[in-house]
Each structure stands twice: as structure tokens, then as C-alpha cells.
Amino acid sequence: MTHRPDCLLIGAPMDCGKRRQGCRMGPDALRVAGIDAALATLGLTVQDCGDLRPKMSAAEDAGSGFQAGACAAWTAILAETAETAMAAGLPIFLGGDHALSMGTVTGVAAHAAAAGRPQFVLWLDAHADFHTPKTSGSGNLHGTPLAYATGRSGFEGFPAVAAPVPDANVCLIGLRSVDGPEREALMASGCSAHDMREIDETGIARPLRAFLDRVAAADGALHVSLDVDFLDPAIAPAVGTTVPGGATFREAHLVCEMIHDSGLLTSLDLVELNPFLDERGRTAALMVDLVASLMGRRVFDRPTRAYA
Ligand SMILES: [Mn+2]
Q1: What pLDDT, on the 0 to 100 scale, is given for residue 1?
Q2: How many Cα atoms are found within 13 Å in the side-chain-facing hemisphere of 170?
Q3: Which of 15, 43, 65, 261 has the highest local Cβ count within 10 Å?
């Protein structure tokens, strides 16, 4: 009998969800920042599955920038991989832009449906990613994955969503850049959405605890999608869509520590890291530290490190 790894690292160097390029370097930046060692230090076994390559035509592959065909191909291979990976360990998807979550969320949700468990999704992001290709002004698909995974229509050419995540099982925290049509769609939905104004007023623990309690009560599977722009740009500059007023270092770690304490996490996306925009790797290093908090590093275990 082979040993089941605790965590699977699955690289998705996907850069087709928007025009600004660089996220395709994200998986390697996270590796260089020591994600495997950080997990191993916690006593976890890690299997790095390398990077996925979508099946797409040479013409689609040749260009750069936004391409629906390439995104659809990524969605297909990611959904298939995510569903399979759920039986093998806790998958950590190394992005790649946020369009990769079209595949990862639908894949893990298909696995949960087959296992008879409800799928829950925690979306840590400055944006709601609730556009459809029709409402998106930019046409950038990295602004659509939550709409797709919850079963909204308008995604022609993309794989059918076999097990859409119910709106009621989705929680967004960190919002501070949501445009008109997206706001209307979000307010009309059954998702629970918490913007930074609310976080300022109540603290970040309150909405998170309420959501984790709901996941636990339903014996749900929990997918966390962590966008770099959830964090304040002062501590995480390596993202193409910086919005001031994001989560602080402590708020982000608290979220991760609470998720770990809940014991509920079943899959994870790390998205929108653009190493081309980073400062000496500090954003990649912070993302790795947050993963360590998610997977069990305690405050008292944290090595003291001077940030240069
Ligand atoms: Mn996002």
C-alpha cells in the first residue's frame, strides 16, 4: 500500500483570464518561496504533481492575453484533475490567474456531490468575481469564476457545470471593488458577502466564524480560494489588480488560523500571484506563510524573520 500524501501541489500556470501577463510564473514562485518545505516542517507529506498543461490547439496556445478557448481548455483539465485529486489528498492549486477556479471549484464540487457531501466555498478576494461573459465590461474571465461555479448561464464553450455550488454555501470576504452590474447580481444571489467596511466595523473573525459554523453543521467540504488581492497591497504588491484597503497581515493570518482550527479545509487555490510585479519575492513568501497558517503553524511556532 502506498502512502497517501497529506497535500498535493498542483501547478496551474494559467494566464489567459486577463490581459496583463505574469501569473503563469506563479507556481514556480511559490515553489521557490518554499511551499513544500513549509508544509514538511509541519509534519505533512507533500507530493508536487508538477504543472498542468491544457489540451488546446496550437493557435490558441500561441497567443498571449485573454482567450476564452484557452480558458475553457484549462477549466476542463482543472476540473478533471481536481475531482481526481480529492481522493488522493488535500489539493493546493498553485496559480495562475483566478480563472483557474472555474475548474478547481467545479471539480471539487463534483467530488463532494459524488460523496454525498455539500460543497462550501470561501472566497477571499477584493473582487466578487461574479461577472458573466455578458456582464463583464473587460471580457476578462478572471472576473467570472464564482458566477460559473454557482451555475450562472452565459458561459458558452465551457464545460457544463454538473454540480453547481449553491449560493447559500458561498461566503465572500474582503470585498472592496465591485462594479454596478456585479453588485446587483451579488445582492440578488444567496451568497453571503462581507466587504472591508464590515470587516472594519465588526472584525474579520465574526463573519468567518459564522460561516465555518455553517460548514461544520452541514458536514460540508470546504474549498478556500485565496486571491493575492485579498491582502493589502502594502504587504502584497505582486498582483495586477491591487486595491487599497485590503486585509492586514494579522487579519490574513487570523483567517488562516481559524480555518485550520476548524479542521474543515478540503481544498485550496492560491491565485493571481504575479511574480513579475513582486518585490524580492515578498508576496510569494507571504502567501507561503499563509498556507503554513492554514495548515497548522501556530503563532508560537513562527520563526522570527526580518523583512528586508
Ligand atoms: Mn479574484
Answers
A1: 46
A2: 26
A3: 15
Could you confirm whether 232 is annotated as catalytic? no
Low-confidence ranges of the chain (pLDDT < 50): 1, 61, 64-65
What is the 290 CA–ligand 1 centroid distance (Å)?
17
Is 200 among the residues known to form the active site?
no
Cα–Cα distance measured from residue 267 to residue 220, given in angstroms and rounded to the nearest whole number: 12
User: Catalytic: 179?
Assistant: no
State pLDDT tens for residues 58-80.
555 455 445 789 999 999 999 99
Determine how β-strand 192-195 pairs with β-strand 7-12: unpaired
Predicted local confidence at residue 207, as pLDDT:
98
Active site residue 98: yes
Does domain 7-299 fall under CATH 3.40.800.10? My reply is: yes
Return d(Cα 15, Cα 36) in angstroms, integer.
23
Helix (H) or strand (E) holding 70: helix 68-85
Q: Which amino acid is at 56?
A: M
Residue 213 burial (CB count, 10 A):
11
- Whole-number Å distance, alpha carbon 301 to ligand 1 midpoint, is 30
Active site includes 194?
Answer: no
Give the domain ranges of the chain.
7-299
State if pTM tops 0.70.
Answer: yes
- Residue 281 Cα to ligand 1 midpoint, Å, equals 20
Q: Interior CA angle at 9 toward 55 and 285, to 5°?
A: 120
Rounded CA gap, 126 and 307, in Å? 25
> For residue 34, what pLDDT is reported?
98
For ligand 1, the distance from its centroid to the CA atom of residue 52, given in whole angstroms, is 20
pLDDT value for 65: 44
Q: What is the pLDDT of residue 46?
A: 98
> How many Cα atoms occupy the beta-carbon half-sphere of 93 within 13 Å?
40
Question: Does residue 271 contact residue 96 with C-beta atoms inside 8 Å?
Answer: yes
28-55 pLDDT, tens per residue?
999 999 999 999 999 999 999 999 999 8
